[in-house]
């Protein structure tokens, strides 16, 4: 017990390492499941990479604890230096990076839902700025070299390190409190508070473990138990800290709906937009004429679906998809700014920002007007972009659509539904000789009105 307590390799150490490996596996599965199972398209930009960086930071944090606390018995090499694992990997690339990513996410939510505009600084610039104190602190510790052989530092260093950890938790609490009055449709605020609780618990466990290992180095079993609890608790807390809803609310909702994820495969359906994706009865049989203006025809849901399928086959469907999402945005009432902001942010991240998955071809001026808007909930936010794309669709896609098989198929479907609807109307009425104008459903007794029965009733009236 004494030898493994100092050099590592106790049975409990290997159990803790196995638990940490399992937690990393579950974390990766939780992150990649929506993209593998539900075939959700991978988004570009910070909404994806911030989550990916959190997964990497979680792995670094667990690995640094394993290496710096001697969980596995290795020969002493330069790459096992305490300043590599306990200072750099555990600090700026582990716990510090994990908290910095969450602060960036909270900062984005604050500007989007409270200020109602896009953040003034990009996440790939803001994240290194937030991480700068960790980098400076690690550099100072590396130069002063206060760590001993067991990667423990003196008491004069522990207070500044704890203050650095606590300051990031306080910053996260400040952003979260500024969001408490927003009625989020997903679990963003809940996940932020859970992250604060997890981070605080990590700091508390780390302090207790440090005190036990520093003060009672001569007690072998206490060294082993405190080391095991540190890695075990960190493995659990890393899983609890992970969240998809803050950056990717639609992906998190799809991953939660295991039975029928297709019911929320679009942001409009996830937000509960009325008639989202449904066809009105009049649209099913409404004739489609090439002489009608394209903007009027696109109001017909069936035509828009057919036109979208044709545009996708030509690898130019982003304009029609953008128009369809803007139509769904217009259905959200103006007195519901939170849902409008959700939908506007989804449209911006999908179609407007540079490098988006379905970036539309609009002018630089229109793009900057959208990105620099002071109110994401305003009703005319995408109007200029819609006008530009409508002109492009009229000049390119519309001319080819009328001679395509997609239009022929749509025309046949409309004709068949028209005939079917007329036959249903004919079969639904009772054309008897005496009561041809009475619908069969209006007869409470559902009896056949034959001429003989009518004569009997006339004879009874004569007798009376």
Determine the number of helices (DSSP H or I, runs of at least 4 residues).
21
Quote the distance from N terminus to C terminus: 114 Å
The secondary-structure element order is HHHHHHHHHHHHHHHHHHHHH
Q: Count the beta strands.
A: 0
Task: Quickly give the structural class.
Answer: mainly alpha
Estimated helix fraction: 55-70%
- Seen as an oligomer or otherwise, the chain set is single chain
Strand composition percent: under 5%
Q: What would you note in describing this structure?
A:
This protein has 464 residues and is mainly α. 66% of the residues lie in helices and 0% in strands. It contains 21 helices and no strands. α2 (11-36) runs antiparallel to α3 (46-68), α5 runs parallel beside α7 (155-177) and α14 packs antiparallel against α15 (318-330). The protein is elongated. The N and C termini lie far apart (114 Å).
Blueprint of the fold:
Blueprint: H1 2-7, H2 11-36, H3 46-68, H4 82-89, H5 91-114, H6 123-144, H7 155-177, H8 188-215, H9 220-241, H10 249-256, H11 267-270, H12 281-285, H13 294-297, H14 301-313, H15 318-330, H16 337-352, H17 364-371, H18 383-395, H19 397-401, H20 405-427, H21 451-463
Helix pairs in contact: 2-3, 2-9, 3-4, 3-5, 3-9, 4-5, 5-6, 5-7, 7-8, 8-9, 14-15, 15-16, 15-18
Question: In summary, what is this structure?
Answer:
With 464 residues, this protein is mainly alpha-helical. 66% of the residues lie in helices and 0% in strands.
